[in-house]
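Protocol step 4 of 6: record predicted structures for both targets in the notebook before any analysis. Target 1:
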Amino acid sequence: MRKRKKKKWAGPLFLIVLMGLLVGGSILWMAGQNKDGEKKEAASADETDYHTMTVDGKTYRYNTSRVNFLFVGVDGAAESMEGQADVIFLVSCDRASETMDIFSFSRDSMVPIKVFDAAGNALGWERQHLGLAYSYGDDPQQGCLLTADAVSRCMNGIPIIYYTAANLSSITEFQNLVGELTVTVPGTDLADLGEEYEQGKELTLDASNVEVFLRSRDTETAYSNSSRMERQRVYVEAYVAKLKQQLEENFQQTVEKILALSQKIATNVSLDEISPFSEMFLTYSFSEENYHVVPGTNQEGMFHDEYIVDEEALQTLLLDTFYIEEIK
């Protein structure tokens, strides 16, 4: 087995950035505006018609009440927005049922992405790690668009209109936004850090230990990203609940804190869209059943771990979430 160094990687902070974006009321860095002020949008993958799916003789149509957001956590040094996509989430809000679903993608997912040569010339689609898609962009906007293309293609070409990206170097700042959180440790991979990190223990997270909980993994252990993704899941669920509580109890003060962090955001969400999206976040239901890890299995690659998406299981998940059976 190849030798790996122990290393830390970024956690799900872009979801926290999402929450700040939706309720902040201001965007200090608008990567999604071109010179004419027209929003550049991520679109459905160019080779797939997402409008209908036919499975076992039944036809399903896409649920057009859904609006999809891509969130990218960039594994870059310091405040840099350069690097790979370390964490990739798709958040889908159903305006009809007023529910929110979150889809977590392994950065190691082996899927088609658009690749380019050193001069920036397009070489077409190539099966690579999903996390690399962002790194081919010349700037955060292009990186998000390329990642959105790859995620859309993986999910039958469903449209991804909005994106947000953030560098994940300031975890403690975002933790301070909500103060303490209590989570149940989901796995055994942090047990060597102390009794409080043993599986099943109730752990209180604050600025002093949140980075350890979210980012630590032993890369000498194969597929360590999977256990880290499970920690991210329990953290996101606790953070969503706590931030909603903060907004309900003291909206203005919470918004002011969010605005202080908004300079870390790269997005194509416009100012006019802040209000309706804020309403979505505050009122739409979200529970453990609405959090989905894209199904698949890990395997050893030549140089890096690889995550092989289970296409059949993913199709079932897509049908259950994004499609409605046509009744003839």
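Target 2:
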Amino acid sequence: MAETTTGAARDGAVAIKGRTPWQITKGRLTRDKITMVALGVAVFFALIAAIAPLLTAWKIIDPYSTHPELVGGLGSLPLGNFGGVSWSHLMGVEPGIGRDIFSRVISGLTTSLTVAVSAALFSVALGTVVGIIAGTAGGWVDWLLSRITEFVLSFPQTLMLIALSTIVIDLVKTALGVSRTPASMLFMILVMGFFGWPNFARIIRGQVLSLREREFVEAARSLGAGRWRIYFKELLPHLWAPILVYGTLIMPQNIATEAALGFLGVGIQAPTPSFGSILNDSVHYASVDPAYFIFPGVTLFLVVLSFNLLGDGLRDALDPKADRQ
């Protein structure tokens, strides 16, 4: 009888297997159906944005060519039902000049995601460096970096983007010898990235304050590890969770900011397609040609919503205090 019990205990011990943090996170994500759907939608939009330049080069989509034969009548509205929707023009055509809305939305997705991703990477990189240094160094270094962070936080991002747009874009055009579109994109990346890092730096600093006294950091110090090794070899690998979550959550904010600036006429402007410039043009036809406003608006809504839901799901999945049942 004792041998049987011992064998059963042994079998039970073998059946119990430990799980890595990645396996735990993966299990939580796969159980969250909303997050998985959001992940699929976000990946779909990202792939479309990545291949859009190739589709334009291969003439599969054409965001710039006009089709005056497809518009006519009062106000040069699109011919046909619901803004000229057809198999050739899945979202219809623009009033007045007849450009394909589907092609412009796809190309605008590339523009918006390029700006949003680049600005997010800038914010995450700068915020990570400042947060790690402030949280580890302490003393006057922490005090100085914290005051700089609070100083940058005191500036409203959208207002600064509008106020600095004309001056900075002209300076970039002159300094780099580029046209307005790349200058506008670089301007928005730099300004959104610069004003986006302080919140992340404070998050990383709080995480580092709880990590810097841990045994592995003390062991690295005792072995003579330098300051930069402790920053980026010991602490940084333990910060990937907040980095991933914050980077995902700041993406929809950057996309919406780029669209808002284009709508206000201080961001990327026509004929270069972007969500902001398309919505700025379409709002004038919202009552007579609702398709021109609905299709780009719904696409922008789905992009922002998918990244928001993905960020929320990742935050819950990576939370060590989350329910594991």
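Step 5 preliminary note on target 2. The mean pLDDT is 84. The chain has one domain: 37-65+100-317.
Proceed to step 6 after PI sign-off.
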